[in-house]
TrEMBL record, chains A, B:
Keywords: Acyltransferase, Amino-acid biosynthesis, Arginine biosynthesis, Autocatalytic cleavage, Cytoplasm, Multifunctional enzyme, Transferase
Domain of life: Bacteria
Protein's organism: Nitrosomonas marina
Record-given protein name: Arginine biosynthesis bifunctional protein ArgJ
The keyword NAD appears for this protein: no
EC class: transferase
Family designation: Belongs to the ArgJ family.
Annotated localization: Cytoplasm
Catalyzed chemical reaction(s): L-glutamate + acetyl-CoA = N-acetyl-L-glutamate + CoA + H(+); N(2)-acetyl-L-ornithine + L-glutamate = N-acetyl-L-glutamate + L-ornithine
Length: 408, 408
């Protein structure tokens, strides 16, 4: 069950002027399930994005990157039920055909449409089924459709994921609304499974691209469920400019930083929701590494702990078998790490120092933290001023069950 | 249940002249369980070893490496029930005290004893209990004790692991017998959990060290159960010289190569036994990567597949959801990999080529390989002449169960 997520309700997600959304049941994998989502963007909307680094990246990822580089964007189309990944030349043709079909319905150019897919890998996309579902999605287009959109992009997700924030820029109210999907195959590298954030802020394309990287590096790039980087990861940020304030085009302006921080807040909330709804998750775990020599080694240590099946199963069992965390740190690939300088905290409890269990540590203190559903592991390397934080979940019977049964 | 391991019987393990073994119940963690093993080596025996690269390596690893560098070796002492890892200065004192106590009983020097431990990490070693168990182990010393020794070093292992081989060198029969333990926290880096191989061959120390590295790189360094490198890994090779042939001191001699290959055969058999008895294993999987640019990238691809929880749960479910293997290859960190050149075979079945499912692939052919208990995944990178093979197992409910319950 998802760990401490407040159930999303339709009125939690605010419309973003300039963005309308339409949903349909195309029947790509299962009947009676919303599986197509279309975003229609007002003219002048700027779009920036980051994509998976998986070398086997999906056909829609390749096409979306190419279209983004060629043109302004007027629409996005997302399908679930099939990832269109590991599908070769035919997959690329299918992604382009999808864009062309939507472009005709919306009266724009094919290169102004970005395609996204999620689902099973290495099965042919049923292109006719998808294309036949597009007219219904276009008919459904409206600005207050974000909640249904969040539900339409779910695969193994148990709960829909979305969040809205509002800020004031130059006296104008600016809205930021985002949705995301993802639950397994989660170890994003420059993005998550799929995340879409829109705002009506008015900002230059260069600064929008800067915000998408900045916020991804502090959100989707800090989470892991199982260490598997997906073929279809994408995180898109759209800015319609409809809020009516002066364009933000200065990196040093207060407005830029305000918008950047608000978008990052939305992205962090979405990324943490993905971990809280991680496949089989029963606990939400923050791994914070402090006082490292540089951020790279802090991330190495944090991910070594967050990926260790032994650490994750101990969390599932609420067993303070904390030597496994030391073993994971020792296994992080930090060549010159002096273990006698490392301190390990579970919540506020000092567990280990000087290469051994702390004299003050009592098993019942560790047990009491382990029994909680939100746990912070803090590792102090004592060799510098850098820090890094990674969010993850535990590893349960249900993870195995979900992934052993996924295609059936 | 272990995958296709022939049950070990006492007469499968041949005595090695010059090596006697003694076992005792010290009661380190549980009563009525053999938990101490002593090897006594004839004078003149040469010993070489490789050890874990985990920075949080255990106290006995540090002491064993130091003693090995200082002196010839007359004895080894192994305990289960406690890893003496993450135990700081006290742990080092305990390891030295163990060596001193055994040295006194065997009338040799402390530095001539190598200590080894396996069990829970970051709990103090009950040193008095261990030392009090040593006299009984010494009383038990005999040459035909290998089978009981294999049982005495088990922790979460279901079956004892051992193998013997004989070869003829210069007209003399030479015996090689080895035992190993390990089932979880298995992704050895220069060694396995614990492996001990002895031979009565007569070989120079330099060439013995070369054999231990050569054979480790082709055996224990090619396996993974869960990707967690232990704090206590060690693989020791002992050569007593009792077989009576002329000393092997030429790298180019036929005798050297014959002995090296026989030791490697023993090490590979032991390493594969560890995977076959991997925690929760139901399948034995060989991941073979061919036609790579160099061995490093072949190993990256092989380990990316062998470590992916999504791939491993699909094997557990016998589900030919083979796109997960493509995603893992794409995620291996081979920056310039051209996916259109990659071929994927499951057994003899061509599954994918040119970045997509092969036109000849039929789901029922993949299913029929997936239903087997021994599966070979072959990945052809088509960009060079290098190869690498990794052995692993699947990921089941029982892995989670075993590791959620380990300390109880």
């Amino acid at each position: 069950m998802p760990v401490n997520i407040t159930a999303l309700a339709p009125d939690h997600l605010l419309p973003v002027p300039g963005v309308s959304l339409g949903i349909a049941e195309a029947g790509i994998k299962k009947q009676h399930r919303k599986d197509v989502l279309v975003f229609k963007l007002d003219e002048g909307t700027r779009v920036a994005g980051v994509f998976t680094h998986n070398r086997f990246c999906a056909a829609p990822v390749i096409v979306a990157k190419a279209h983004l580089a060629l043109s302004t964007v007027r629409a996005l189309v997302v399908n679930t039920g099939n990832a269109n990944a590991g599908t070769g030349e035919t997959g690329l043709e299918h992604a382009r055909t999808t864009c062309a079909a939507l472009a005709e319905l919306l009266d724009c150019e094919t290169k102004q449409v970005l395609p996204f897919s999620t689902g099973v890998i290495m099965e042919p996309l049923p292109i006719d089924t998808l294309v036949n579902g597009l007219p219904a999605a276009v008919t459904d287009l409206k600005v207050d459709n974000w909640f249904d959109a969040a539900r339409a992009i779910m695969t193994t997700d148990i709960v829909p994921k979305g969040v809205s924030r509002q800020i004031t820029l130059n006296g104008k109210t600016v809205t930021i609304t985002g949705i995301a999907k993802g639950s397994g195959m989660i170890r994003p590298n420059m993005a998550t499974m799929l995340g879409f954030v829109a705002t009506d802020a008015n900002i230059s394309h260069a600064l929008l691209q800067e915000i998408v990287r900045y916020s991804a590096n502090r959100s989707f790039n800090c989470i892991t469920v199982d260490g598997d980087t997906s073929t279809n990861d994408a995180f898109m940020l759209m800015a319609t400019g409809c809020a009516g304030h002066t364009e933000i085009d200065e990196r040093n302006s207060a407005e830029f930083q305000q918008l950047r921080d608000a978008v990052t807040d939305v992205a962090v909330t979405l990324a943490q929701m993905i971990v809280r709804d991680g496949e089989g998750a029963t606990k939400f775990i923050t791994v914070q590494v402090d006082s490292g020599y540089n951020e790279t080694e802090c991330r190495l240590a944090a991910y070594a702990v967050a990926h260790s099946p032994l650490v994750k199963t101990a969390f599932f069992a609420s067993d303070p078998n904390l030597g496994r965390i030391l073993a994971a740190i020792g296994n992080a690939g930090i060549e010159d790490l002096d273990i006698s300088g490392v301190e390990l905290y579970l919540g506020d409890v000092l567990v280990a120092e000087k290469g051994a269990r702390a004299p003050t540590y009592r098993e019942e203190d560790g047990q009491s933290v382990m029994n909680q559903s939100e746990i912070t592991v803090r590792i102090v390397l004592n060799r510098g001023a850098a820090s890094s934080t990674v969010w993850t979940c535990d590893f349960s019977y249900d993870y195995v069950k979900i992934n052993a049964d996924y295609r059936s």
